[in-house]
Amino acid sequence: MTRRVLSFEPLRAARLAFPAALVAASLLTGCGEKPKSDPAAEVPPATTVVNTGDAGNMKVDHPEQFPLVAAVKYSDAGTLSVTGTVTPDVSRNIPVVSLASGRVIEINAKLGDTVQKGQVLLKVQSADVSGAFAGYRSAVADAKLAATQLDRAKVLFDKGALAQKDLEVAEDADAKAKITVENALEQIRVLGADVNHPSSTVEIVAPASGVITEQNVAAAGGVKTLDNSPNLFTISDLSTVWILCDVYENDLGGIHAGQAVDLRLNAYPDKVFAGKVGSIGPILDPATRTAKVRVELQNPGLMRVGMFVAATFHLAGGAQGRASVTVPATAVLHLHDRDWVYQSAGNNTFHRVEVSGGAILESPGSSTKLQVITSGLAPGDKVVSNALEMQNTLEQ
User: Of 2.40.420.20, 3.40.50.2000, 3.30.1390.20, 2.60.40.420, which CATH number belongs to 57-76+322-395?
Assistant: First the structure.
């Protein structure tokens, strides 16, 4: 019998050749395709901010991402524009108080009302007034008895039936009784009651004419004596008002007492009111670096307490024509109630500089707004055009 021998070599060769054919086919298929771009390679390089040790200095490795602009010289023509608020003249504020404690039973006026001197504002039912009237009536009765006893003593003395010292005692008792009546009568008047109309209710009247600018009493409320209690009402004479303006310390050199000020109200933009500087506050606010400047003027009847006012000071002396600069409004960073810019210091380094920001101006022929910088920058200084973008990069 012939034995047949099977050989597996051809199969083994085919198995080895198949993977190689697949690799070759894949290479041939990909020859005509272009390599795909890497999206990560198209992203601009990340900006690295290095702190130089100074809180106001930082260094970046790609400064071209923060365009610079140059500060441009600007002349303010010798004026300073600030905002202020209408307030009452405190020397013309008159408090309304009650010396009689008790309970409010009627209120005839409220906050904002215009009242006249002597007008009844409220009525108070008071035990103090009741006690004062009781003391007065008792004093009158004692005085009447003392007068009768004195008359009897005089008759007896004239007839020799009374000693001199007893007459003097009767005279002294009569004099003291009259003093007691006078004191009781004065107490009633001090409490605000009328001796000719005995009652436990006292009327509180306006001590002067004006506008009620403060109210601290309500119907059925309690009225205490003067110790540690607020005024029932405050009446203000608004014929003269104050405008309190916040002025930066860098601008105070051009302001003095008696200086003319032009005032404009938002409610009446076409009207210009003339005022003058009354005083400059001696205390500077450490947070805003501003001082209170008080402008005084006669109220034409249009100014109401709390109104916002645009005040224009005509600067004096060396402040006339003071040089300032302008930068794009986006170059100014408002942080912690202060104004800052990022100024280029060269060698990819930027320095955060505190400045004093002024008015916002419209840029001619452009939608970009400019801001006046009154101090902190000089003409030609280069700053980052978008300070907020620089700040956000720094915080990342």
Answer: 2.40.420.20
pLDDT tens digits along 63-120: 888 899 999 988 765 678 899 999 999 999 999 999 999 999 999 999 999 999 999 9
The model's pLDDT over 332-350, given as tens digits with 9 standing for 90+, comes to 998 877 889 999 988 888 9
- For 243, how many CA atoms within 13 A lie in the half-sphere containing its CB? 29
266-281 residue pLDDT tens: 888 889 999 999 999 9
Q: Cβ(102)–Cβ(220) under 8 Å? A: no
Q: How confident is the model at residue 42 (pLDDT cuts 50, 70, 90)?
A: low
Scored b (16 or more CB within 10 A) or e, 134-172 reads: ebbeebeebbeebeebbeebeeebeeeebeeeebeebee
State how far the Cα of 149 lies from the Cα of 153, in Å rounded to an integer.
6
Chain segment 293-307, per-residue pLDDT in tens: 999 999 999 999 999
- Which residues neighbour 263 within 8 Å (Cβ) at sequence distance 6 or greater? 84, 243, 272, 273, 274, 275, 295, 297, 309, 310, 311, 312
Q: Give the domain 79-89+238-319 fold.
A: Elongation Factor Tu (Ef-tu); domain 3 (2.40.30)
Rounded to two decimals, what is the model's pTM?
Answer: 0.58
The amino acid present at 200, given as its one-letter code, is: S
Quote the CA–CA distance of 287 and 340 in Å, as a whole number: 15
Instruction: Indicate the domain borders of the chain.
Output: 57-76+322-395, 79-89+238-319, 127-199
Confidence of residue 228 (pLDDT cuts 50, 70, 90): low
Q: Per-residue confidence at 124, pLDDT binned at 50, 70, 90?
A: very high
Angle at alpha carbon of residue 315, lines to 312 and 319, rounded to 5°: 140
- Burial label, 4 (beta-carbon count in 10 A; 0-12, 13-18, 19+): exposed
- The CATH number assigned to the domain with range 127-199 reads 1.10.287
For 59-68, the pLDDT digits (tens) are 887 888 889 9
Give how far Cα 3 sits from Cα of 6, 64, Å: 10, 87
DSSP state of 377: -
Can you read off the two tokens belonging to residue 57? 């200095």
Q: What torsion do the CA atoms of 337, 283, 231, 243 make, to the nearest 10 degrees?
A: -70
